[in-house]
Amino acid sequence: MDNNRNKWINENKERFTRDSYRTLIGSNMARTMYDARDYEVVHGTYQFEMAMLEYIKQGNAEKIKEFLLESVDRQSFNEGKLAENELRQVKNIFIGLVAMIGKMAAIPSGVPVEQAYYMIDTYTQQCEALNTMDEVYVLQYSMIIDFTSEIGKYMFPSKLSPAIHSCTNYIIQHLNEPLTARDVIEFSGKSRSSLSEQFRKETGSTISKYITTCKIREAKVLLRYTDKPISEICSHLAFSSQPYFHNVFRKETGMTPIEFRNSAV
Question: In terms of domains, do 50 and 147 share one?
Answer without folding.
Answer: yes
